[in-house]
């Protein structure tokens, strides 16, 4: 059965069709005058719904730009046009994103009577898309430009994504890195145990690091790096994101600083020995005097066949030579550049220091009491530690030079976790406001030429590099310096 | 009864130096007493006629200059030291008759002591 719709019925049907369309639509005559439109039409253009536009001119109702008017003209001439994404500038200047289609409609005789326009507002979708694209490009810029190496790998260590900074660190090309290179190929075996620890951290805390290790570069060179990373999940599978910092420059800088520090320690030690030169000279002059004087007597003793004195003179000469030799040996040992890290007996540290200081202190009525009540040893540089003790003894000697009662006490005792070396003297003490100053470089209360002002600052640096502390103990009325070293 | 000849007093905390100079100076005909303890030396010097005192500067307890301060001004005093730093200290002290740097040769000391040695051996 054929159903014909026309007249009032036809208009009603048209309105129903428009009302139920999932998109906004409007029907125009040849002059672009509204014949019909649905509720969605105005909102699709960013205008409130509710107005009846029938009989009004399209171009009077909405700010239609020339480009669209051209489209309308072409469609009135028989064309059909559409755009997947276009924009419409509202009267208030705001931009709406639209998808549209314009097609002519014809009378029964085939003549074009006007156009029908479908519009879908896609502003939100477009804006979301733009935001996503922007974020994507931001992240990819960050990934590409980051000076920190970034790498995504599977739990098995297979590399999935590496940024240019990381490729630079390891010296491989993008193709090589993406072509099945793995974390393990670039990790020296000596890190196996550390790697297991970091993997355990990943399992328990979902993060790892900061972890310092080396990678084997493509050229075989080892590059020091610091890693930090975290676990991510994608489609049910776990991956590791790692941030990799190249520590080459930092290590070189640290190396240079350490070198400078060692040089300063050595220079300070030599300066200190220079100040002690007079006492060393005295210690060597006496044996020399003995040797010369006994040699002088030998001439007569030989002529007189005085066998007893000849024996005595030879014994005295040999003894004096040995004494002078011991002093020279002690000086040579102390003057040596830095020794290797070793397990160092505190008793040895004190003995070596005493070898150098005895001459200086054994003069002009200074009572020196030495009490080593520890068999502890610490890990470190023996000569540097002796240098600290020599420095403290030297200061003590200078401090008591003009004191009415002259004594110096050097003791070493065990305390929980630490071994303590104490150097106390009967000097006038350190003025109350100089607590911090005495440890500052170039600070000295000694006369010009008598001190470099570096002794205590260098000593503190030495003690701290051994994980210990050097401080002035204010709990006693006299001067007491306290060195604490972890056992 | 004749008064004993004035003696040379030699003070050094080093026993071997005392014993060897005792022998050397006695070999030159002088009367010599040596001391390793300056206090004992001072007690002796205060109660005996002394030709000259030879004394080391750097000793435990008291210095050679401390000894000098306690010796009568008329007694000649030869100070010995290896310490260059005290040279200026000595230069300012008119009481020091001679200053001798360590190490020195026995001949040098003998030459300085010439005027205090018995004439029979002096210059010999």
Spans of at least 5 consecutive residues with low confidence of chain B: none
Structural class of chain B: alpha/beta
Counting H and I runs of at least 4 residues, what is the number of helices of chain A? 14
Query: What is the number of strand segments of chain A?
Result: 17
Arithmetic mean pLDDT of chain A: 88
How is the quaternary structure best described? heterodimer
Cα Rg of chain A: 47 Å
**Order of the strands making up the biggest sheet of chain B:** 2-1-3-4-5
Work out the radius of gyration of chain B: 14 Å
- Beta strands of chain B, count: 5
Order of H and E elements of chain B: EHEHEHEHEH
Q: Any idea of the CATH topology of the largest domain in chain A? A: Heat Shock Protein 90
Task: Explain what the structure shows.
The complex is a heterodimer of chains A (487) and B (124). With 487 residues, chain A is of the alpha+beta class. Chain A has three domains: 3-121, Beta-Lactamase (2-Layer Sandwich), CATH 3.30.450; 145-267, Beta-Lactamase; 338-486, Histidine kinase-like ATPase, C-terminal domain (Heat Shock Protein 90, 2-Layer Sandwich). Chain A contains 14 helices and 17 strands. Chain A has helices at 7-20, 41-44, 58-61, 66-76, 123-145, 164-170, 174-178, 192-205, 248-275, 277-303, 307-335, 346-361, 382-400, 455-465; strands spanning 24-28, 34-37, 81-89, 95-106, 112-121, 149-154, 159-162, 207-216, 222-234, 237-246, 342-345, 367-373, 377-380, 407-415, 418-425, 469-472, 479-486. Chain A has a five-stranded antiparallel β-sheet with strand order 2-1-5-4-3, with helices on both faces. In chain A, strands 7-6-10-9-8 form a five-stranded antiparallel β-sheet. Chain A has a five-stranded mixed β-sheet with strand order 12-14-15-17-16. In chain A, helix 13 (382-400) runs antiparallel to helix 14 (455-465). The mean pLDDT of chain A is 88. In chain B, strands 2-1-3-4-5 form a five-stranded parallel β-sheet, with helices on both faces. The radius of gyration of chain B is 14 Å and the shape is globular. Chain B has helices spanning 15-27, 38-47, 64-69, 87-91, 106-113, and strands at 7-11, 32-35, 50-56, 77-81, 98-101. Chain B starts with 6 loop residues before the first strand and ends in an 11-residue tail after the last helix. The model of chain B has no long low-confidence stretch (mean pLDDT 86). Chain B has 124 residues and is α/β, with parallel strands linked by helices.
């Amino acid at each position: 059965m054929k159903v014909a719709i026309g007249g009032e019925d036809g208009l009603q049907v048209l309105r129903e069709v428009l009302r139920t369309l999932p998109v906004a639509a409007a029907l125009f005559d040849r002059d672009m005058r509204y014949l019909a439109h649905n509720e969605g039409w105005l909102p699709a253009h960013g205008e409130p719904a509710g107005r009846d536009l029938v009989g009004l001119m399209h171009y009077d109702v909405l700010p239609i730009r020339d480009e669209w008017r051209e489209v309308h003209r072409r469609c009135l001439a028989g064309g059909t046009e559409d755009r997947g994404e276009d924009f419409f500038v509202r009267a208030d200047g705001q931009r709406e994103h639209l998808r549209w289609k314009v097609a002519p409609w014809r009378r029964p005789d085939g003549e074009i009577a006007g156009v029908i326009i479908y519009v879908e507002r896609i502003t939100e979708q477009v804006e979301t898309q733009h935001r996503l694209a922007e974020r994507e490009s931001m992240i990819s810029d960050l990934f590409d430009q980051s000076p920190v190496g970034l790498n995504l790998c599977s739990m098995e260590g297979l590399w999935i994504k590496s940024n240019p900074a990381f490729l630079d660190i390891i010296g491989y090309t993008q193709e090589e890195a993406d072509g099945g290179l793995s974390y393990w190929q670039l990790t020296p075996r000596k890190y196996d145990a550390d790697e297991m620890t970091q993997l355990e951290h990943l399992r328990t805390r979902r993060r790892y690091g900061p972890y310092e290790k080396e990678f084997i570069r493509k050229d075989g060179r080892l590059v020091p790096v610091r890693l930090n990373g975290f676990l991510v999940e994608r489609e049910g599978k776990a991956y590791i994101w790692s941030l990799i910092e190249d520590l080459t420059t930092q290590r070189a800088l640290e190396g240079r600083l350490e070198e400078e520090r060692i040089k300063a320690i050595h220079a300070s030690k030599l300066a200190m020995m220079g100040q002690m030169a007079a006492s060393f000279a005295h210690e060597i002059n006496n044996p020399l005097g003995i040797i010369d004087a006994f040699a002088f007597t030998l001439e007569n003793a030989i002529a007189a066949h005085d066998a007893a004195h000849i024996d005595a003179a030879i014994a005295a000469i040999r003894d004096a030579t040995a004494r002078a030799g011991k002093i020279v040996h002690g000086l040579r040992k102390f003057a040596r550049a830095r020794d290797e890290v070793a397990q160092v007996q505190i008793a040895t540290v004190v003995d070596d220091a005493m070898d150098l200081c005895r001459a200086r202190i054994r003069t002009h009525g200074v009572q020196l009491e030495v009490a080593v009540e520890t068999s502890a040893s610490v890990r470190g540089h023996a000569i540097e530690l002796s240098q600290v003790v020599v420095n403290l003894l030297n200061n003590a000697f200078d401090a008591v030079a003009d004191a009415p009662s002259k004594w110096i006490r050097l003791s070493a005792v065990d305390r929980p976790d630490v071994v303590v070396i104490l150097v106390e003297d009967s000097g006038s003490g350190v003025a109350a406001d100089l607590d911090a100053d005495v440890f500052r470089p170039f600070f000295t209360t000694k006369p010009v030429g008598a001190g470099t002002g570096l002794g205590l600052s260098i000593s503190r640096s030495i003690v701290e590099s051994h994980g210990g502390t050097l401080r002035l103990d204010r709990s006693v009325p006299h001067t007491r310096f306290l060195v604490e070293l972890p056992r | 009864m004749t008064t004993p000849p004035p003696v040379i007093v030699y003070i050094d905390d080093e026993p071997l130096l005392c014993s060897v100079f005792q022998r050397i100076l006695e070999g030159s005909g002088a009367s010599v007493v040596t001391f390793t303890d300056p206090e004992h030396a001072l007690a002796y010097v205060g109660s005996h006629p002394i030709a000259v005192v030879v004394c080391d500067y750097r000793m435990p307890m008291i210095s050679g200059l401390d000894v000098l301060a306690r010796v009568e001004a008329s007694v000649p005093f030869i100070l010995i030291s290896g310490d260059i730093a005290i040279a200026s200290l000595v230069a300012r002290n008119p009481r020091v008759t001679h200053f001798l740097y360590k190490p020195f040769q026995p001949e040098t000391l003998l030459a300085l002591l010439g005027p205090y040695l018995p004439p029979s051996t002096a210059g010999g």
